[in-house]
Amino acid sequence: MKKPAPAYETAELRKFGEILRGRRSIELFLQTPVPRQLVHEAIEAASWAPNHHVTEPWMFHLLGRRSIDACLELVRELVTAKKDAAAADFKVKNWAAKPGWMVVSCRKSDDALLQREDHAACAAAIQNFMLYLWKAGVGSKWTTGDITRERRFFDILGLDADAADVVGLIWYGYPKLTPTQQRKTVGDILVELP
Ligand SMILES: Cc1cc2nc3c(=O)[nH]c(=O)nc-3n(C[C@H](O)[C@H](O)[C@H](O)COP(=O)(O)O)c2cc1C
């Protein structure tokens, strides 16, 4: 006989778990625009991430047409220099199809521990952002490619590279395709101590 579900296992909790498990990094997006209001709400939800000493170390940079085009130009230049024009063309074509561009930056600190904790807080905020969008049917992908450490990328964002780090460039949009993934089991990743 099937064991009864434990009392804590409500339909709401199951649904919440499905959202957490179902989110995937999306590579291919539809061109359907994502409402700006939804993105603002996702940023607001992101800002409730835990952050030690309530430093709120994050900034969200929502890119418009001009700044996206500047990033595409920059990535063309970087890939051409590193590889060749054909590789650059391929990458620019791929990146040009990403409908939404959000960058999350983290305030820099001279205090190494604070810096590490602030970075962790920004990562938690990005996860909030991505999950909020996911619940609304919007997929995303977090990237930390070469461009995110490039001085000219900071210039496009109007960011002082001595004062902030980029934690991620997040592309978002309605998914064209949602990939599947595997994860280790709880048994593989849990150490229970006495
Ligand atoms: C800090 C961070 C940086 C990432 N950078 C990249 C990246 O540069 N390129 C990429 O393809 N995916 C990147 N990803 C996405 C991961 O590859 C992805 O989360 C992983 O493959 C698991 O897939 P899932 O998100 O669908 O579960 C990054 C994820 C994190 C957390």
What is the secondary structure topology, with strand pairs?
Layout: H1 11-22, H2 36-46, E1 58-62, H3 65-82, H4 85-96, E2 100-107, H5 112-135, E3 139-143, H6 151-157, E4 164-173, H7 186-189
Antiparallel strand pairs: 1-2, 2-4, 3-4
Helix pairs in contact: 2-5, 3-4, 3-6
Could you please describe the fold and organization of this structure?
- The mean pLDDT is 97.
- With 194 residues, the chain is an alpha+beta fold.
- It has helices at 11-22, 36-46, 65-82, 85-96, 112-135, 151-157, 186-189; strands at 58-62, 100-107, 139-143, 164-173.
- It has a 4-stranded antiparallel beta sheet, covered by helices on one side.
- It is globular and about 65 Å long.
- It has a single domain (28-176), classed as NADH Oxidase (3-Layer(aba) Sandwich).
- Helix 3 packs antiparallel against helix 4 (85-96).
- The site of flavin mononucleotide has 8 residues, from strand 3.
- The site of flavin mononucleotide (FMN) has 8 residues, from strand 3.
Please give the order of strands in the largest beta sheet.
1-2-4-3
Strand content: 5-15%
Q: How far is it from the N-terminal to the C-terminal residue, by CA?
A: 32 Å
CATH top level class name = Alpha Beta
Q: Helical element count?
A: 7
Strand tally is: 4
**What gyration radius follows from the Cα positions, in whole Å?**
19 Å
The H/E string reads HHEHHEHEHEH
CATH superfamily: NADH Oxidase
Q: Tell me about the largest β-sheet.
A: 4 strands, antiparallel
CATH topology: NADH Oxidase
Q: Which kinds of small molecule does this entry bind, naming each only once?
A: flavin mononucleotide
User: What shape does the CA trace take?
Assistant: globular
Unreliable spans are none
Structural class of the secondary structure composition?
A: alpha+beta
Taken together, the total number of domains comes to 1
What percent of residues adopt helix (DSSP H or I)? 40-55%
